[in-house]
Structures are given as C-alpha cells and as structure tokens.
Design brief:
The protein is an alpha+beta fold and 390 residues long. Helices cover 51% and strands 14% of the residues. 51% of the residues are buried.
Length: 390
C-alpha cells in the first residue's frame, strides 16, 4: 500500500566510526531482522541466532572497554544503535539493552581479575545475559527482596525466586541481587551466576500482550552454589550497584521506545501518503496531517532528551534525573504515537496484516519495565524537592 518509503533518521554522530556503525546496524536490521519480525513475534520465536550475529559483529558490548571485548563507544552512539534495532524489532533492541544492563555490574564494579576472566565471553563471545532484581513480592520496592545468599566457606548458597526476568530460561548468565545481611538496601549483594549452575531453573515464559518473542520468566535458585570469586563488589553493595545500573538501563529503554515510535510513524506516513479516499491521499486532510506532525515532534523531543542525558553520562556528570525524565517521556511518547498510528491506518491498523497493532502492544510494556513511569516521577521529584517526609 505505501508508495513513499520512510527516510532513515538523520543522526548527528560524533565520528566517522559511529556513522559506519549505524550503517552496519541498518544493514543487519533490514536483511536479518525486519523480514522475520512479524512472523517470529506471532509465533513467539526468540531470535537467538540474531543475538549470536550481533555478538560476532561486536554489537553486544558497545559501551564497554575494548580491552575486555567491548567497542569503547560513547553512550550517545550506543543508544542510537539501540533505537535502530528496536525500530526493526523491539525483542532485539530491548534484548541488547538488557544484556548491556546485565553486564554493567561486572564491567563497572568487578575486580580486574573478574573482568579479564568473564567479560570477553559476555561482551563478544556469544553469551547472553539477564538481570535478576525483581521478585514475585518485590517489584517497585526492590529493596525488600527475599532471595538469600548464605556464606559457606569460600562459596555462597543462593536460594530464592526472581520474577519478570527478560531472557529467563535462555540466558547464559544471570546478574543476581541477593540478601546477604540485614533487611533493607544495605543487606544486598550482587553475584554473577552461570545459567548452567546446578539448582538454576526457569519457569514457563509469561503469556504477554506483546513482545511474545522475548521470553519473560521466573528464575528459580534452589541452593545454587557459587564461589566468592563471583561476588561482584563488596558485601552489602548490591543495591547501590543495582540502582546505578538502572540509571543507565533507563536510557536504553528510552532509546528503544523512540525506536518503536519512529517505526510506527514511518508506517503511518507511508500508509497515509498511499491510501486514497475521496479522490486524494488521506495525508492531504489537515486533521491527519496535524496528527503526523505531532507524532514527529514528540519523537524528536524524546530523542533529544535521551541524547542529552547520554552526553551527561559520557562526560562523567550526574544524569540520574535526566535518565528518569527520558524514560518517562520517551515511553509515554511511544504509547501515544503507536495508538495514533493505529488510528491513522483505521481498520487496517487493528489487524495483524500491518505492524501498527504490534507496535502499540509492545509500547505498553516500556512504560512498566525498569521502573514504572510512576516510579520515574518519584525519582524526578526527589531530585527537585528532596526525599519524601514520613
């Protein structure tokens, strides 16, 4: 139906290397991801072969040091790669973001020996990670988690259940937050747990509204023994590590949201310029033209917001408030833009023959993961007005 192909996003990139990187990502997206996206999402197929390809081409470790298998890319470049991947298929874009989040603790807080031993395989050796913080009874209140790790000589024994784990059951390693001491945030420690350790198992994936190709599952740790050499950071430092990781992870979600929104806008523009009613393209009608203009403006604003936060991060400046703002604005934008895209397509937008309905279903989860948008508002308000009084 569309007679106007969408134009690639005109990106302001800092180096020729970054421009070449975006070209590579677009080529992979168009040849390896987009052609299978609708069919595989409908079938609930997880594209492990795509993640293997991304690992082989160096796209799973972009913001980390090259000495450990990364690519030394600034966050402003890495996030734009995520946006391109999410526009092609959110299962892939979000999966790369989660893998990057899962590698953060070891890359940032691990010892030199730990980084040398584990990071090359995590960042470029074909492994895929998952991040284990949430539990059935602790989501937004993550500091109340109950999974416990008990010291036994030179080992730790981990017992508990994690919930809503992206890549649960398909990951090769889990970054696990477990209680090793007192109640509250100071009693939590981080561990790197191999997925094939005895006692690790995953429940059946959740049956979700969207992102059916990305497995989300509970992960059970039944007396899992891990050596102290797999403890990340100091005992009791785990919650601080988790929050630090989430600041960066929220930027990943923001970029993925703008990718989905951009894909929805491209679909809407292509349809509106090709669909004839009353003897002319429906894009000629002012009401619809204004909808498209508003969608494009919201996307550009979101992209500018997440890139501004990324540049703060790259400069070593505080960015937690801006990360929360970016996650809030970009995911709300994705929800609104995808709903409007369905409206532009009319009845066709409500069918699985066009991707608009899939974009709408997928956008919803982005308002929930890695801190609901209500939590983002709390984070922003604390930066503005200080902690809540009790």
């Amino acid at each position: 139906m569309p007679d106007r192909a969408p134009q690639p996003v005109d990106r302001q990139l800092p180096t020729d290397e970054a421009r070449d990187l975006i070209s590579l990502v677009r080529d992979i997206a168009q040849h390896e991801i987009v052609p299978k996206a609708a069919e595989e999402e409908g079938a609930g197929h997880f594209p492990r072969e795509v993640f293997t390809l991304l690992s082989r081409t160096g796209l799973l470790g972009l913001p980390y040091a090259s000495e450990h298998g990364g690519a030394d890319q600034p966050y402003e470049v890495y996030l734009q790669v995520l946006e391109e991947l999410a526009a092609a298929r959110l299962t892939v874009g979000l999966g790369v973001s989660v893998h990057t989040l899962s590698s953060y603790a070891l890359a940032t807080y691990g010892t030199k020996e730990q980084r040398v031993e584990h990071l090359p395989a995590m960042l470029g050796g074909g492994l895929l990670g998952a991040y284990c913080l949430s539990e059935p009874s602790s989501g937004s209140d993550a500091a109340s988690l109950r999974t416990r790790a008990v010291r036994d000589g030179d080992n730790w024994v981990i017992t508990g259940t994690k919930a809503w784990i992206t890549h649960g059951g398909v990951a090769d390693f889990y970054t696990v937050m477990a209680r090793t001491g007192e109640e509250g945030p100071r009693g939590i420690t981080a561990f790197l747990v191999p997925a094939d350790a005895e006692g690790v198992s995953a429940a059946a994936p959740e049956k979700k509204m969207g992102m059916k190709g990305s497995p989300t599952a509970q992960v059970h740790f039944d007396g899992v023994r891990v050596p102290d050499s797999r403890r990340i950071g100091e005992e009791g430092q785990g919650f601080a590590i988790a929050l630090s990781a989430l600041d960066s992870g929220r930027l990943g979600i923001a970029a993925c949201a703008i990718g989905v929104a951009q894909a929805a806008l491209d679909e809407a523009v292509g349809y509106a310029t090709g669909r004839q009613q009353f003897g002319r393209p429906i894009a000629d009608f002012q009401g619809l033209r204004f909808m498209l203009a508003d969608m494009a403006t919201q996307i550009e604003a979101g992209r500018a917001l997440y890139l501004a936060a990324a540049r703060l991060r790259d400069a070593g400046r505080p960015f937690a408030k801006q990360a929360a703002m970016a996650k809030l604005h970009c995911t709300d934008t994705a929800m609104k833009v995808t709903v409007d895209a369905v409206q532009v397509l009319g009845g066709y937008g409500y069918t699985a023959d066009f991707p608009a309905e899939r974009y709408m279903r997928e956008a919803k989860v982005l308002q929930i993961v890695e801190g609901t948008n209500q939590i983002q508002r709390m984070v922003i308000a604390r930066h503005l007005a200080g902690p809540e009084t009790r």
